């Protein structure tokens, strides 16, 4: 039987689809004549159904990329029929589709390199060593709560919030196996810390990366939302810490040794990040080009190391690209589906309509704050991509605001971010949608505090 939060989500999406089908967009100032077509309304309904299937991934066993890719193809086919009916030539449609491809290719290449490096570092036992150090030190529940949260905040700025959530989450679960209350609160703290830490770094959150690659904010300018991001983590953490159990967990003896070249791989990853930043800042080149150059250094290093290994050594047969697990490829293909779905809806005119409704009707401040809350229910990636496609006239302060809100807004509900979804999968029933929802009010305090701090220090 479905739990209550699934009923909530089904109701929400059916309501959105019903409103769309009952609406008349043709007279709206920012709309398009194509939006009034029945097929255009059908496109919106198809997108809502596809996203419902994404939410039901664990129930159905259907990977989230499959409904999104199918919907992307279907939406563009319908969009091309509508465009033809309104006199648009095939070249105009191809140009719109190619624009989507350019944006996806930049994101794909950047993320592919980052994921390959993360997987190589993971295989070299770097993250396992970090976990063993934390588990074996004998910290109290209070100490472990703050230590894991702080590490998650800063690590997610480099290693992305999903990887960080899995690493730190396993530590929380391992040391709190005798205290379900600590596991629940510790996992919530980890999700909040990961999302907050990823918000101020293009390497920590996909939405921040999108804003950087779109040229809306320079790399170093994202540091302006470091303090607001930190506040959005510290406020709920301070409240949750009051309710932690007393005492210390049982110390677990874990012995982990780094594999050969682990430190070198960490250095190469750091150098690749630096190369991507300098390429964009100094030479004006897209960041993915610096990342691809860094990948070539890793590939060259692998070649030199493997030459000295015997043919029977397993590492000799290892391929860098085989390190990308099925889940990562599914995520990358999910991005493709989302970007093409949103692109098709934008081509018809929905994004222009939504931009007028939010940014012209209510102003950038309210629109960006609401968009961050929407990302708590709908993953922040399509929310941010839609805003970038709308391209509202905003200054740097507002682009930093939506970056902050989209990053930390996903913490309000466990389904609002990849970090929360991943920890629900490994939380062994102690960290669930409802256990997270009980603390949503406290997390909203952090959301508001982070936004208020942004206005205080950056306006």
Automatic annotation (TrEMBL):
Family: Belongs to the NhaD Na(+)/H(+) (TC 2.A.62) antiporter family.
Membrane topology: Multi-pass membrane protein
Record flagged with keyword Ligase: no
Segments passing through the bilayer: 38-56, 68-84, 143-176, 182-201, 222-242, 262-278, 332-354, 366-387, 399-425, 437-457
Main location: membrane
Entry's localization field: Membrane
Pfam families attached to this UniProt entry: CitMHS
Keywords carried by this UniProt record: Antiport, Ion transport, Membrane, Sodium, Sodium transport, Transmembrane, Transmembrane helix, Transport
InterPro entries the UniProt entry points to: Cit_transptr-like_dom, NhaD-like
Protein name: Sodium:proton antiporter NhaD
């Amino acid at each position: 039987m479905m739990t209550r939060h699934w009923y909530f989500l089904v109701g929400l999406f059916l309501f959105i689809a019903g409103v769309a089908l009952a609406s008349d967009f043709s007279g709206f100032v920012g709309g398009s004549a194509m939006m009034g077509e029945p097929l255009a309304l059908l496109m919106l309904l198809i997108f809502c159904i596809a996203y419902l299937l994404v939410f039901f991934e664990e129930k159905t066993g259907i990977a989230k990329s499959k409904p999104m890719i199918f919907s992307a193809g279907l939406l563009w086919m319908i969009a091309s029929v509508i465009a033809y009916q309104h006199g648009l030539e095939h070249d105009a449609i191809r140009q719109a589709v190619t624009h989507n491809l350019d944006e996806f290719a930049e994101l794909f290449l950047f993320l592919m390199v980052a994921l390959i490096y993360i997987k190589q570092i993971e295989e070299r036992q770097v993250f396992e060593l970090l976990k063993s150090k934390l588990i074996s030190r004998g910290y109290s529940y209070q100490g472990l709560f703050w230590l894991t949260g702080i590490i998650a905040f800063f690590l997610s700025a480099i290693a992305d919030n999903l990887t960080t959530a899995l690493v730190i989450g396993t530590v929380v679960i391992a040391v709190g196996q005798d205290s379900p209350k600590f596991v629940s609160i510790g996992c919530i703290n980890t999700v909040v810390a990961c999302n907050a830490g990823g918000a101020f770094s293009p390497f920590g959150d996909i939405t921040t990366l999108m804003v950087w690659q779109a040229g809306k904010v320079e790399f170093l300018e994202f540091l302006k939302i470091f303090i607001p991001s930190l506040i959005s983590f510290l406020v709920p953490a301070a409240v949750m810490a009051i309710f932690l159990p007393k005492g210390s967990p049982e110390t677990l003896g874990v012995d982990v040794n780094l594999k050969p070249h682990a430190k070198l791989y960490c250095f190469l990853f750091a150098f690749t990040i630096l190369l991507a930043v300098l390429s964009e800042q100094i030479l004006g080149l897209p960041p993915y080009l610096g990342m691809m150059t860094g990948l070539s250094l890793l590939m060259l290093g692998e070649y030199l190391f493997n030459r000295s290994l015997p043919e029977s050594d397993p590492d000799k047969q290892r391929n860098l690209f085989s390190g990308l697990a099925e889940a990562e490829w599914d995520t990358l293909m999910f991005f493709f589906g989302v970007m093409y779905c949103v692109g098709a809806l934008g081509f018809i005119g929905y994004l222009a309509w939504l931009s007028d409704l939010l940014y012209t009707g209510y102003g950038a401040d309210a629109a960006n704050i609401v968009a961050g809350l929407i990302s708590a229910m709908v993953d922040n990636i399509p929310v941010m991509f839609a805003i970038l496609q709308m391209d509202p006239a905003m200054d740097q302060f507002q682009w930093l605001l939506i970056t902050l809100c989209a990053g930390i807004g996903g913490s309000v509900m466990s389904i609002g971010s990849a970090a929360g979804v991943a920890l629900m999968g490994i939380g062994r029933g102690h960290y669930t949608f409802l256990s997270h929802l009980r603390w949503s009010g406290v997390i909203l305090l952090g959301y508001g505090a982070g936004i208020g701090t942004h206005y205080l220090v950056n306006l």
